[in-house]
Amino acid sequence: MPYLGLGVYQVNEGEEVENAVKTALSYGYRSIDTAAFYGNEQGVGRAVSESGIPREKIFVTTKVWNDAQGYESTLAAFEQSRKNLGFDYIDLYLIHWPVKGKYKETWKALEKLYKDGMVRAIGVSNFQIHHLEDLMADCSIKPMVNQVELHPMLTQKELLHYCKKQNIQVEAWRPLMRGENFDHPTLAGLAEKYNKTVAQIILRWNIQLQIVTIPKSVTDHRMKENANIFDFELTEQDIAEIDAMNKNKRLGADPDNFNF
């Protein structure tokens, strides 16, 4: 699984998402993250198929939405996503949110898909430690990935430590905080120190903490900038300074209190 990918949440189906994916692939991205809920799986699939890059070289993630959770309904939702994408298999399939009373049956469906070879990896999204503990109490396959909101204002250290101990790969959504706090002195100072953008500093911080990161962009130069993070390295002190920015501040929904 590549450490850098493109997120396509709120990217319109059709020309917009197709252009974004093709542009990202041209800049060396090899991971694309979509979801049934995003409504753009078909465009992602077309862009990947038309890119000229072998399918097996591109890591594609999609997710089962909340209203499709449950055993049989998840299997049906997966098949619809697979058809939308136009692929024989999906690289990573995630439970989008921990819907109470549903996610265990949903996970059983993901285990079947994995055992049947329809998906190369299975995981969860927005799961807290207690959700993971509950799921793993009686599952046959542990989640391989947990995709969560994670950025300098929400560093998720306890969850990171737990997932590392359990050999679950953490993946960050909304890593760039939608541009909030980009003027923070710590980030601005590090950007100046390394002659990089604030976004590049944050994404490099993710990479060095071994967190998979999927910044969303539809802008050519930003996608190019976001990929240009492998020619410098933050010091341990730099990483500690970014860690110290944590305010446990969520920009998205709380996994323990959502109603969708």
Automatic annotation (TrEMBL):
Binding locations of substrate? 96
Q: Which keywords, in A-to-Z order, does the entry hold?
A: NADP, Oxidoreductase
PROSITE patterns of this UniProt entry?
A: ALDOKETO_REDUCTASE_1, ALDOKETO_REDUCTASE_2, ALDOKETO_REDUCTASE_3
As recorded in UniProt, coiled-coil segments are none
Q: Where is this site: Lowers pKa of active site Tyr?
A: 63
Q: Which domain of life is it from?
A: Bacteria
* A Pfam family the protein falls into: Aldo_ket_red
**What sequence ranges are listed for the domain NADP-dependent oxidoreductase?**
4-246
Gene Ontology terms, MF aspect = oxidoreductase activity, acting on the CH-OH group of donors, NAD or NADP as acceptor
Q: Which family does it belong to?
A: Belongs to the aldo/keto reductase family.
Q: Provide the protein name.
A: Aldo/keto reductase
